[in-house]
């Protein structure tokens, strides 16, 4: 093949930089999460999963699974088309209504993933708002970056969570041009939180719209699990909230919630929505059951337990001199700082100790900040944590890694 050498060279570079990614074939056992079985070329091994985005274990929840069984028995597998061509069911309609109500908005719109929700919505805003300027946090997710790029509008990148820098950029632009600030609540690699209230204050001052990605926060924060904006009582001040159904809600899909007019305009304009087969009814049914459960007292109990477990693991890392990166959220990043050692640490934990946590390397994080990213949840016990810490300490020393200062 004429161009095969270029692909081989690209792979060689990735291998040389120590960031080649290998997928682990997992068999999660219903009702036993985080226990699973990893399947390898030459056998299997029972493991403990420490890096799942199914933060609360809702992908194993009986109410969610029962709703999905009911939906597949009644509706079958796929949706049958785009939302315009037979792909709308009562599950889609009910789920959008639930999401709008959850976020205190008059409308919501489902997408097939959180990535597609960001990409399709942000790229479409440039068509709807001529002359738009988008101000984007430097650590925004790749889906937001791609959507903003495809919007074809002027964009300004402000330093991560730096409201003063954002202000300086906005002051230099034409006050009459439409503006939108795009940022996240929980930044999943570092585990820090965006200054939502301060950014909303700035948006009000400069007559800008706000676009908040809450994918790592929905289900996890707030009295009903609507996210950090609900927890901080500023949800009503955010114009467009984007979320996922594939993390804390344990299923699959993405969405936006906003004023019904904004939703209708995106629904009628975004090619990423119009020309995509809608999410399967079974997925929508499972997500609906998950959201309703996490809005209840059961959800509040799960969220409290989750925060307690995350705090406990952070403290155990600190107590043993492991360089945990401080965060205010459920994300527990352990800094390694070397791509090859990061992968070696991950591989050894998996093959020798049955502990599964993926290495996070460039381009997901900057070079020199490679890390393991742990997501302890209510289903992880303290005994599991003690075994984890002991295993990390053994491999840490073996690899010649330094302890925290």
Textual characterization of the structure:
With 405 residues, the protein is α/β, with parallel strands linked by helices. 42% of the residues lie in helices and 16% in strands. It has a 7-stranded mixed beta sheet with strand order 4-10-9-8-7-5-6, sandwiched between helices. Strands 1-2-3-12 form a 4-stranded mixed beta sheet. A 3-stranded antiparallel beta sheet has the order 11-14-13. The radius of gyration is 22 Å and the shape is globular. The mean pLDDT is 95.
Gist of the model:
The protein is of the alpha/beta class. It is built from 14 helices and 14 strands. Helices cover 42% and strands 16% of the residues.
Gap from first CA to last CA: 52 Å
Class per helix and strand makeup:
alpha/beta
Largest sheet: 7 strands, mixed
Overall pLDDT, averaged? 95
Strand content: 15-25%
Radius of gyration: 22 Å
Low-confidence stretches: none
Shape: globular
Oligomeric grouping of the chains = single chain
Give the SSE order as H and E letters. Answer: HEEEHHEHEHEHEHEHEEHHHHEHEEEH
Number of DSSP strand runs: 14
- The helix content, as a percent range, equals 40-55%
Q: Kindly report the spatial arrangement of strands forming the biggest sheet.
A: 4-10-9-8-7-5-6
Number of separate helices: 14
């Amino acid at each position: 093949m004429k161009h095969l050498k270029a692909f081989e060279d690209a792979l060689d570079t990735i291998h040389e930089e120590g960031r080649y990614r290998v997928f682990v074939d997992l068999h999660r056992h219903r009702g036993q999460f985080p226990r699973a079985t990893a399947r390898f070329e030459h056998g299997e091994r029972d493991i403990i999963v420490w890096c799942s985005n199914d933060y609360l274990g809702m992908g194993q929840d009986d109410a969610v699974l029962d709703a999905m069984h009911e939906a597949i028995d009644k509706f079958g597998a796929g949706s049958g088309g785009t939302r315009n061509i037979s792909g709308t069911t009562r599950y889609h309609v009910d789920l959008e209504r639930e999401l709008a109500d959850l976020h205190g908005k008059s409308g919501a719109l489902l997408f097939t993933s959180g990535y597609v929700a960001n990409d399709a919505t942000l790229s479409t805003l440039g068509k709807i708002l001529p002359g738009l300027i988008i101000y984007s946090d430097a650590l925004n997710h790749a889906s937001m970056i791609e959507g903003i790029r495809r919007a074809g509008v002027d964009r300004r990148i402000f330093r991560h969570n730096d409201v003063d820098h954002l202000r300086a950029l906005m002051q230099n632009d034409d006050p009459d041009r439409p503006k939108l600030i795009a940022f996240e609540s929980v930044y999943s690699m570092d585990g820090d939180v965006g200054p939502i209230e301060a950014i909303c204050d700035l948006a009000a001052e400069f007559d800008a719209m706000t676009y908040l990605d809450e994918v790592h926060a929905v289900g996890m924060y707030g009295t009903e699990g609507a996210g950090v904006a609900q927890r901080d009582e500023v949800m009503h001040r955010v114009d467009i909230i984007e979320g996922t159904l594939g993390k804390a809600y344990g299923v699959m899909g993405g969405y936006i919630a906003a004023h019904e007019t904004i939703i209708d305009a995106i629904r009628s304009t975004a090619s990423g929505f119009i020309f995509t087969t809608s999410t399967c009814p079974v997925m929508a049914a499972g997500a609906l059951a998950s959201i309703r459960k996490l809005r209840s007292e059961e959800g509040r109990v799960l969220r409290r337990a989750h925060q307690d477990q995350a705090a406990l693991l952070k403290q155990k890392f600190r107590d043993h001199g492991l360089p945990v990166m401080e965060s205010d959220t459920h994300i527990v990043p352990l800094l390694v700082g070397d791509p090859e050692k990061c992968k070696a640490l991950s591989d050894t934990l998996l093959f020798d100790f049955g502990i599964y946590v993926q290495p996070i390397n460039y381009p997901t994080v900057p070079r020199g900040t490679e890390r393991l990213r742990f997501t302890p949840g209510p289903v992880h016990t303290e005994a599991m944590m003690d075994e984890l810490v002991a295993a990390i300490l053994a491999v840490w020393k073996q690899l010649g890694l330094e302890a925290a200062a």
